[in-house]
UniProtKB/TrEMBL annotation:
UniProt source species: Methylophilus medardicus
Annotated protein name in UniProt: DUF421 domain-containing protein
Location relative to the cell: Cell membrane
Membrane topology: Multi-pass membrane protein
Family stated for the protein in its record: Belongs to the UPF0702 family.
Pfam families the record matches: DUF421
Keyword vocabulary terms for this entry: Cell membrane, Membrane, Transmembrane, Transmembrane helix
Gene3D superfamilies associated with the record: bsu07140 like domains
Highest taxon above the source species: Bacteria
An annotated GO cellular component: plasma membrane
Length: 124
């Protein structure tokens, strides 16, 4: 929420390309370019709205969260899948003021690319 995702970036690139093609062509290409941009905007809004309303569609568009650390143990298969190193994880833990992996109950890569950390309770 509030971040620019890869889908948003690609949308901006496609709209920029469509508008560039419309401006560099003959006089008829400007209305054609505006029509193309309008269709792209409608599709983008429609896909966002559908993914908001329907969890099945959201599952097709957004990846599920990926657990990287569970009960202080690195999940190396998940880390390899996303090209995340142990040093990346330890760096993020230090940023959050966590000194050891053993203090982490769960760390996961969210669908928006952010890392979320749930610490163990002091009594655990």
């Amino acid at each position: 929420m509030g971040d620019v995702g890869i889908g948003d970036f690609l949308f901006v690139m496609i709209v920029a390309d469509a508008s560039q093609n419309a401006m560099s062509g003959d006089a008829k290409s400007i209305p054609d370019g505006l029509a193309l941009i309008s269709v792209l905007v409608v599709w983008n809004v429609l896909i966002d709205w559908l993914s908001f309303k329907n969890t099945w569609i959201r599952g097709l568009i957004e990846p599920p969260p990926l657990v990287l650390v569970r009960n202080g143990v690195l999940q190396t298969r998940a880390m390899r899948k996303e090209f995340i190193t142990k040093e990346d994880i330890l760096s993020k833990l230090r940023e959050e003021g966590i000194e050891h992996l053993s203090q982490v109950r769960k760390m996961q890569l969210e669908s928006d690319g952010q890392l979320s950390i749930i610490q163990r309770e002091k009594s655990e």
